[in-house]
């Protein structure tokens, strides 16, 4: 990594660290959640944007990470900081399983299968009342003594920055070439020597792992888990964030996650109507530029190169 | 017709009783072919005679229904396509396949950095140099930072062909209709690149084409396919006079 790429995250941390001093308790909480969504959106973009595997199970992996960690902490009294990686690992393992099932599937079939997977997971959570307390929700031990947003801000900021650095590394390594070649033409990638099976599995596992870890942090912050988090709405929000910001771009999901989460708070009084607004916004953006806000930025600032850089 | 490097009569590829059926249809039917090292072999035959299916079988896109394929004496017909690439087999597609949302240069780097090339990605800078040289060679260098989807049809064909040249080792290059839909200037560039790679690097080619003038200039030997079988083999002049070949083309 170049000096610039190493300094950039430190720079971002330095800029963003003082923000809660001005944002107040409530908006600090909104920022915490938006950092969670940054990790979710960016990791979904790895699989859907870069690799072209339109999985609709990403929210399920987050819930899986949350439930796994919470249940381990509650029943086996393990430290939360150990529970969280366990949640990530289990989500990664299921990512491997789901990725293997979907190896030969194209577009719509992969979407349907992964959606069916999340629905089954949601129903299982709902029905395993003894273990998960079903729709009543599972109250989850908090990572810190307090429920105040302020200290969590630094946890989520760090989480987002670390995850993004790892993803940046992946996308800008040779693996990035494999991912994008698979997205553009899997058969051609295969005959060009890319082990498509191996790399599709890799991306399924990696993105699920990120989702599982983010989901676990989220659960130990909010203090409550419920099957509602595996509602399709939750997946739809991720889709909206990534598409608005820019599918297949690195900055897109980051911009999309933060702006949609904040917008969604500003429009809170409109309730479910927000989803309609967002849907309309997605349609308009797709018509203007398929690469979302980042794509529009590129046409405005043509200096910005295509290639991998953004 | 120039004689080829390493033309010592050694066999590089052999298909033995190769058969591929799709449901009731037999696209390739008991095909036995021998390709010599350093040869530029033409494959001709009317539409639907199984030429593309043969390329798909050799490159591993399709699994053979029966029969066997040997590369340098080693059986390869059960290997995955990417493994065959690592053994030195590369191909182009009749309907060109490039990575449309990657730049021209990035398209070249996919095979160079792929699993088939071991740890060659560690020499990134040299590989990029090589890729750029190849792009100059096929006159696409000025497009290196453009997305592949912005290229013209002929340029896409050129890119598809140039991309394969970066693979190392490169033993056998399968080209499916490399001259289809390209203008005469690009056709010339493609022919030159084939001749040069054959002469300088000893690459063996199998070229499927309907373009008889190009086949005549490039290929010492052609195999004629009809209904999945090989019905004739020899120089283009020889096979053109065989009644079965004339029947196949006229009778369909
Ligand atoms: N995937 C497939 N499924 C079913 N049938 C197929 C498939 N691929 C090829 N065929 C059939 O096999 C036969 C041979 O097709 P192939 O594409 O190999 O011919 P070809 O010689 O390449 O023809 P052309 O000159 O038109 O390219 C055709 O009848 C074709 O319809
Ligand atoms: Mg064909």
Could you write a compact summary of the structure shown?
In chain A, 75% of the residues lie in helices and 1% in strands.
Topology (elements, then pairings):
The complex is a heterodimer of chains A (310) and B (252).
Chain A: H1 3-16, H2 19-50, H3 58-76, H4 80-101, H5 107-127, H6 129-132, E1 138-139, H7 149-171, H8 174-184, H9 186-191, H10 196-222, E2 224-225, H11 232-245, H12 251-266, H13 273-288, H14 292-300
Antiparallel strand pairs in A: 1-2
Helix pairs in contact in A: 1-7, 2-7, 2-8, 2-10, 2-11, 2-12, 3-4, 3-5, 3-10, 4-10, 7-10, 8-10, 11-12, 11-13, 11-14
Chain B: E1 11-22, E2 25-36, E3 40-44, H1 51-59, E4 66-71, E5 74-75, H2 81-86, E6 89-91, H3 104-113, H4 124-137, H5 153-165, E7 172-176, H6 184-201, E8 204-208, H7 212-218, E9 221-226, E10 229-234, H8 236-240, H9 243-251
Parallel strand pairs in B: 3-8, 3-9, 6-7, 7-8
Antiparallel strand pairs in B: 1-2, 1-4, 4-5, 9-10
Q: Percent range for helical residues of chain B?
A: 25-40%
Number of strands of chain A: 2
Question: What is the percentage of strand-forming residues of chain A?
Answer: under 5%
Give the mean pLDDT of chain A: 91
N→C terminal distance of chain B: 30 Å
For the largest interface in this structure, which chains are involved and how many residues does each contribute? Answer: A-B, 25 and 32 residues
Tell me, what's the shape of chain B?
globular
Secondary structure class of chain A reads mainly alpha
CA-to-CA gap between the ends of chain A? 15 Å
| Low-pLDDT ranges of chain B | 1-8
Total E-strand runs of chain B: 10
Tell me the series of helices and strands of chain B, N- to C-terminal: EEEHEEHEHHHEHEHEEHH
Please tell me how large the radius of gyration of chain A is: 19 Å
Ligand types? adenosine-5'-triphosphate, magnesium ion
């Amino acid at each position: 990594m170049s000096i610039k790429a190493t300094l950039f995250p430190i720079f971002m941390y330095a800029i963003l660290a003082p923000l809660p001093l001005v944002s107040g308790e409530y908006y600090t909480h909104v920022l915490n959640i938006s950092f969670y969504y940054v990790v979710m959106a960016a990791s979904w973009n790895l699989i859907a944007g870069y690799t072209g595997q339109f999985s609709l199970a990403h929210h399920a992996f987050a819930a899986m990470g949350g439930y796994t960690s919470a249940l381990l902490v509650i029943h086996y009294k393990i430290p939360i900081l150990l529970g969280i990686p366990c949640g990530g690992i289990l989500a990664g393992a299921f990512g491997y399983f789901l990725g293997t099932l979907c190896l030969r599937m194209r577009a719509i079939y992969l979407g349907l299968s992964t959606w069916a997977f999340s629905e089954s997971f949601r129903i299982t959570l709902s029905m395993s009342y003894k273990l998960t307390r079903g729709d009543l929700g599972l109250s989850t031990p908090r990572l810190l003594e307090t429920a105040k947003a302020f200290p969590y801000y630094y946890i989520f900021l760090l989480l987002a920055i670390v995850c993004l650095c790892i993803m940046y590394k992946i996308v800008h390594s040779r693996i990035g070439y494999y991912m994008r070649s698979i997205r553009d033409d899997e058969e051609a990638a295969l005959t060009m020597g890319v082990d498509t099976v191996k790399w599709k599995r890799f991306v399924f596992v990696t993105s699920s792992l990120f989702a599982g870890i983010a989901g676990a942090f989220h659960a130990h912050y909010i203090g409550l888990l419920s099957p509602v988090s595996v509602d399709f709405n939750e997946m739809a929000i991720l889709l909206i964030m990534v598409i608005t910001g820019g599918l297949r771009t690195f900055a897109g999901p980051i911009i999309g996650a933060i702006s949609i989460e904040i917008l969604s708070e500003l429009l809170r009084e409109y309730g479910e109507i927000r989803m309609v607004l967002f849907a309309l916004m997605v349609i308009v953006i797709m018509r203007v530029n398929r690469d979302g806000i980042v794509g529009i930025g590129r046409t405005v600032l043509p200096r910005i190169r295509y290639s991998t850089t953004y | 017709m120039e004689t080829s490097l390493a033309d010592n009569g050694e066999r590089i590829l052999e298909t033995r009783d190769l058969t591929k059926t799709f449901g009731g249809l037999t696209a390739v039917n008991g095909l036995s072919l021998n390709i010599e090292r350093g040869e530029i072999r033409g494959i001709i035959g009317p539409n639907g005679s199984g030429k593309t299916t043969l390329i798909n079988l050799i490159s591993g896109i399709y699994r053979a229904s029966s029969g066997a394929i040997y590369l340098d004496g080693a059986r390869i017909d059960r290997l995955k396509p990417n493994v065959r690439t690592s053994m030195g087999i590369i191909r182009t597609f009749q309907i060109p396949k490039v990575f449309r949302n990657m730049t021209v240069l990035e398209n070249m780097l996919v095979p160079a950095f792929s699993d088939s090339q071991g740890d060659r990605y560690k020499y990134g800078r040299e590989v990029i140099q090589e890729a750029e040289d190849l792009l100059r060679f096929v006159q696409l260098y000025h497009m290196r930072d453009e997305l592949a989807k912005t290229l013209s049809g002929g340029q896409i064909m050129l890119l598809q062909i140039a991309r394969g040249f970066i693979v190392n080792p490169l033993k056998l290059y399968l080209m499916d209709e490399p001259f289809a839909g390209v203008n005469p200037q690009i056709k010339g560039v493609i022919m030159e690149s084939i001749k040069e790679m054959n002469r300088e690097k000893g690459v063996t080619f199998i070229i499927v084409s309907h373009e008889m003038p190009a086949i005549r200039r490039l290929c010492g030997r052609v195999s004629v396919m009809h209904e999945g079988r090989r019905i004739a083999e020899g120089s283009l002049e020889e096979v053109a006079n065989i009644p079965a070949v004339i029947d196949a083309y006229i009778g369909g």
